[in-house]
């Protein structure tokens, strides 16, 4: 069975690989960097390295908007390919989002090489050399606690609760991966949590995309761009049942998870 130092080394290597991928401009590098940071935060919180956990979470949060913009731009391209918006409307929206993307790129560059990231990297390197005690017991206890938050259905809950539940699923999965990395068997329910995370993620992507489009419609109305506002209004109407369906699927998946019953199927992302 491996020692905690091996886990810190794994997390340090994952972060460095994600950073380098960002610098190379790999398509999924932003997503991978945020996942690496979230994994570090989960591990650090379980092993009572609070400063590392806070730092990793802060950097990950700073990249939330850039990541969501990345997802929204892909969904916009999908909407255009399906003919739900005219080419002119897609071009107009994409041009406005391009300005936001430029700001997001600068934020990503700061996060990748900024002072917070450098301090985090140095701290992980030290832990990878010396490790920390009581790792497995603490990780197992944190995993049990994370699982306890998933033992309830999302039936009748609001969107904020769904969002918090989605984050809890991620944390439970990351802790399961930590235990496996240290040589323990995969915890019961880990595969089910992966499917649940994907279902919740699809709902989150769609409802956040719809929210950005709603802001675009209001902006078009203020500018007096009547045609674009009308197209966006129609698209929002079309998307409403799609978002509702994704939400219903997420709630159903949580109900099955609470009963410890495997999901019958997974939603496919339209992106």
What can you see in these coordinates?
This protein has 271 residues and is mostly helical. The protein is 80% helix and 0% strand. Helix 2 runs antiparallel to helix 3 and helix 5 packs across helix 6. The C terminus is likely disordered.
User: How many helical elements?
Assistant: 10
Report helical residue fraction. Answer: over 70%
**What is the SS-derived class?**
mainly alpha
Strand content: under 5%
Radius of gyration: 20 Å
SSE pattern, N- to C-terminal: HHHHHHHHHH
Describe this protein with a few key phrases.
single chain; 271 residues; mainly alpha; 2 domains; 0% strand; globular; disordered C terminus
Summarize the structure.
The chain has 271 residues and is mainly alpha-helical.
List the helices and strands and how they pair.
Elements: H1 4-24, H2 29-46, H3 50-62, H4 64-81, H5 87-113, H6 115-130, H7 135-148, H8 159-181, H9 190-223, H10 226-258
Helix pairs in contact: 1-2, 1-6, 2-3, 2-8, 3-6, 4-5, 4-9, 5-6, 7-8, 8-9, 9-10
């Amino acid at each position: 069975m491996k020692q905690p130092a091996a886990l810190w080394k794994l997390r340090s290597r994952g972060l460095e690989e994600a950073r380098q991928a960002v610098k190379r401009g790999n398509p999924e590098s932003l997503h991978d960097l945020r996942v690496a940071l979230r994994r570090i935060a989960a591990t650090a919180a379980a092993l009572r390295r609070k400063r590392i956990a806070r730092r990793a979470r802060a950097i990950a949060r700073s990249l939330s908007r850039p990541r969501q913009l990345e997802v929204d731009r892909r969904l916009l391209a999908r909407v255009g390919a399906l003919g739900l918006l005219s080419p002119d409307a897609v071009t107009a929206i994409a041009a406005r989002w391009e300005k936001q993307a430029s700001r997001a790129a600068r934020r990503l560059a700061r996060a990748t090489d900024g002072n917070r990231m450098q301090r985090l990297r140095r701290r992980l390197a030290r832990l990878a050399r010396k490790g920390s005690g009581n790792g497995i017991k603490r990780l197992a206890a944190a995993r049990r606690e994370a699982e306890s938050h998933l033992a309830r259905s999302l039936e009748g809950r609001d969107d904020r609760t769904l969002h918090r539940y989605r984050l809890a699923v991620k944390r439970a999965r990351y802790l399961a991966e930590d235990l496996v990395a240290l040589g323990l068997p995969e915890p019961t329910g880990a595969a089910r949590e992966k499917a649940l995370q994907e279902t919740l993620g699809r709902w989150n992507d769609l409802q956040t995309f719809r929210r950005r489009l709603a802001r675009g419609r209001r902006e078009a109305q203020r500018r007096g761009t009547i045609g674009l506002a009308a197209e966006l209004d129609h698209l929002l109407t079309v998307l409403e049942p799609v978002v509702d369906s994704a939400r219903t699927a997420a709630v159903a998946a949580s109900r099955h998870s609470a009963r410890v019953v495997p999901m019958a199927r997974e939603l496919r992302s339209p992106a």
